[in-house]
Amino acid sequence: MSSNYIQAEQEIDTYQGNDLGLTYTAEYCVFKVWAPTAFTVSLVLYATGGNGLTPQTADYKDSGKILSMERAEGGVWTIQVSGNLKGKYYMYRAVFADGSINEAADPYATAVSANGTRTAIVDLSETDPDGWESDASPVLPHPADAVIYELHVRDFSSDPSSGLTYKGKFKAFTETGLRDEAGHLLGIDHLAELGITHVHLLPVFDYQTVDELGKPGEEPASSIFTDYNWGYDPQHYNVPEGSYSTDPANPLARIREFKELVQALHSRGISVIMDVVYNHTYGFQKGPFQPLVPDYYYRHDQSGRLSNGSGVGNELATERPMVRKYIKDSLSYWAKEYHIDGFRFDLMGLMDSVTMREITEELRLEINPGLLIYGEPWTGGDSPLASKTLKGVQRGKGYAVFNDNFRAAIKGDSDGWGKGFVTGEYGKEGAIASGVSGAIHEFTDAPTETVNYVTAHDNLNLWDKILATRGLRGEAGLPELEGGKLRGGGDLKAALEQANPYVGVDPENVLDNETVRRSLLANGIILTSQGIPFLHAGDELLRSKYGDHNSYRSPDCINAIRWENKSKFIAVFQYYKGLIELRRTHPAFRLHGRQEIERSLEFLRCDSGIVAYRLKDHAGGDPWNNIVVIYNANMEPVTQCLPETSGCWNIVIDHTHAGPEAFRQTENGSVEVAGLSMMVLYDKYGEPEPRSKIVEVHYDRPDGDYRGWNLWVWGTGIQDGQRDFQHMEEGHAVARIEVLPGTSAIGYILRLNDWEEKDGTADRFIDCSGSGEQVIKVTVRERSPEHRTELADPLPQTS
């Protein structure tokens, strides 16, 4: 076991301040770096970014100016340098007791030179696009209202058929008004037309393995570089990726252009989610942490070796105070500086549950109560971490996890021939029913804790998976791929031109094709289930990646979204658009709580390749009285009995059409559902009672420290359990609790985390009966430890 590892496990100085990294002004700059085990640390100022790009002066030397830093409290080294340093670059040089010397970029870097070689000194205010100060996140009233669309920046625009000028760049999202020859909208206008609420971007922080200065067709400058990557190889966590910039050598350009992307999506009512990778780094010795604080940031096994729960050689020790602080500081920076609306955590199982809980509570309380937070509740391998954030750990904690149980039930395995409900396997109906119910009787306390999906960026995408289960790979001529190249060598583009992923699809009758029907049924289930729906970009265009199940380093000809498919498969696009419009129009498909689901959703049939259920009694305040949803995974039509009604049933979705408006009716007590299709019907339209009223609890603590405090509530009729405080108002922490309109009282306990402490000793209650208003405000004040909580008189009630 190394001495550094032993030192990392011992008590070392930690720092609580919020000023690590560079603080820039035109008069001076302050540099602070946490390096508690270093013998001495120096700041090294450079004139260039270190990529061979030199100032055009005869006497130029790039040796760097070394300035000694002073050690301060908490293991921090600091220096203030006078003058305007804008345009220069810097590194930290640490010397350790054993004589070793490491030079590294600032772990808190917010700007870097090309390929992240050196930390850049910039004035961030100069990176704000016009109107940035008025940019605002679209309002997300409730997590159940989200419809997520997972997208890679380069895939979005790199294909020639996109018509976009800035192919593969952030700025492609700012291009509007583009149409194909048939007049169909492209680019960002397509996303707005589709109706999704959130774009989930694969990693857009600075990652290591794409040469930002390279040009297509040129030999990479380093052996680690590839032409393409998904971005799960972090280098600088707080800087946008330079290969997506029009000028990677200019540290300001990537920052400004990513802000323009966010601004453009916000202007269309679409929120932005960042895919973040705080479970591992690409490099270890040359990574962002090891050179300055050896071994502290990384998790080790009992033998002192790096643990490898990520599957890529290392994992970050998120449970350590300064690693946890770094992650929270980084997320806070993205949310504030770039107006990011949510975060998806890669391999969240490798992040300890305390860190995830604190991230969720603090980011919402301090920055944006509408932040959407979710992640992968698994690891990539064995890890010594005891408190993994696995499926079920999220219960009541305000964040969601991917529902791989539902995924497997719908399609089967992810890369092979295995089948699920929509791909021809009986016996999956119960698992489908569980997913439809938001997994509330499986691993969630509320439907908003599950992200429902069929496919994502990794593994076979939906179209290719269905081709595999149908045994059509050979007939489609899909090539054998390995590492982004043809297995055995050859011309990849030529092989793709010979392939036909859409074998058997009649362009005059697309919706009759079996593969199309199965794909629409798969995501139709997702979009009509309780929870948060998640779509892989291009599914609405029948996107194929030619059978490449792991395209993270495959070229654009594999990964790019082919926009000509919109014209070819416009009926498929319209079907997806109608499904999304139905979901966003009708709250019955977006129920908020476990009790609400149990009261409103009942299954009519669940066997023999058929799942049918009813959403009843104006579920969730829906204007439709009763809604029946039927999934038929059989090849042949089936007849499904319908609940009794005094009138007719109105059909809004069948195998030919999807949307929120009825296009045909049935007055029979049963309906025929075509093979490999779904149907949605409703009986009566009317004015429902109010869905809920809100109890707004204002918590007043004299110490002003609300970290970890939450409410445990019961009797709401919608969602009992933990309720976090989600925003600050006049110095108070505020929580909003939904209750059924007829509720007379709800009970609550104020507690710290998971019952570590209680504010008060007895159960307390809030009277909800005396008000006809929709919002009831009360204030709760912390008093003495002996008689801690007193419920004050209700604040003036408002509607």
Automatic annotation (TrEMBL):
Keyword vocabulary terms for this entry: Calcium, Glycosidase, Hydrolase, Signal
Regarding protein family, the annotation reads: Belongs to the glycosyl hydrolase 13 family.
Protein's name according to its UniProt entry: pullulanase
Q: Which Gene3D superfamilies match?
A: 2.60.40.1110, Glycosidases, Golgi alpha-mannosidase II, Immunoglobulins
The EC category is hydrolase
Where does this protein come from, organism-wise?
A: Paenibacillus silagei
Query: Which CDD domains is this protein grouped with?
Result: AmyAc_Pullulanase_LD-like, CBM41_pullulanase, E_set_Pullulanase
Q: What reaction is this protein's catalytic activity?
A: Hydrolysis of (1->6)-alpha-D-glucosidic linkages in pullulan, amylopectin and glycogen, and in the alpha- and beta-limit dextrins of amylopectin and glycogen
Q: Which residues form the Glycosyl hydrolase family 13 catalytic domain?
A: 150-583
Q: Which InterPro entries match?
A: Carb-bd-like_fold, CBM41_pullulanase, GH, GH13_cat_dom, Glyco_hydro_13_N, Glyco_hydro_b, Ig-like_fold, Ig_E-set
**Sections of the chain in a coiled coil:** none
- Its Enzyme Commission number(s) read 3.2.1.41
